[in-house]
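User: quick one - fold this with GFB bound?
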Amino acid sequence: MSEPAFDLTGKTIWIAGHRGMVGSAIVRRLENEPCTIVHCGDNRVDLRRQDETEDFLAQNKPDAVIVAAARVGGILANDTYPADFIYDNLAISTNVIEAAHRFNVGKLVLLGSSCIYPRLAAQPMREDALLTGPLEPTNEWYAIAKIAGIKLCQAYRRQHGSDFISCMPTNLYGPGDNFDLESSHVIPALMRKIHDAAGNAKETVEIWGTGTPRREFLHVDDMADAVVFLLRNYSGENHLNVGTGHDISIADLATTIAEVVGFTGQFTFDTSKPDGTPQKLLDVSRLTELGWSAKTNLKQGLAQTYQWFSNRSESDLRL
Ligand code: GFB
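Assistant: Sure. Structure tokens for the protein plus GFB:
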């Protein structure tokens, strides 16, 4: 590969959202690089407040910013709290991007989500499927905010020449995930339910929906590696997909988690709960052509995440 577009040597990099699953994985990944990491530590900077965001930038003057801060949640949380999901995510993207422009940040990477694509987009979903059809209703609030984030990066690039890029990860999982059954995504939810069932000799575990939807899952350490790769090597107006290129049905995912946990019981299906998008599989050919691909096989990633889950205390699991 030619010279990196953005050399990390000696740079100061702010990871917005360093406490979350993705932000903390990016902190771990950047610790191996010749740069200085900044974040707000144990203090709270409310990125929904423009003055707090700008004060933080003014004090720390980072060379680069990674926007991993977001209000995130699974299908039920997205559907139940539409105002929180649209407002918080719009405010975070707007405030951080405007502040990064004001304080001359040299590079910014915004993280979005594969739910930006139309509910019935052709699979695997290419980047140019954006804004070609209606969104999935359970998460359109979050999706609209993330689409606005893509457009903010593009607009600041066009008008101000800012090197602001965005990437759209598929569904993520790994250590540091949220295991609260009401607000979590499917992997931590099923892992916890199956773990509890195995521990209490329960014979059944309930899966929301029909089990037929298909999802693509990327380990968070792979995501962190992709973010650092893009920070260094990508400087374009188009957002880029980040995924594995493989998907699995929710029913098969449950079986795989059961194998990891050692649960031999049955699954039942609560069809009063939503399925959401029938399939979400990203076309990752642009990223592959640039030279990055995921390394973690799903079963190994689930086993590693289960080990983390089993070793944590209740208070670490954000229940
Ligand atoms: O992970 P999940 O909540 O997110 O659900 P989405 C994926 C699928 O798993 C859905 C099913 O079909 C759920 O009905 N599922 C089965 C479960 N059992 C469970 C369970 O116990 N808990 C959960 N949470 N799901 C979110 C979006 O969509 O994904 C966000 O709402 C974001 O905006 C995120 O894009 C990555 O893939 O459906």
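One thing worth noting: The chain has ten helices and 13 strands.
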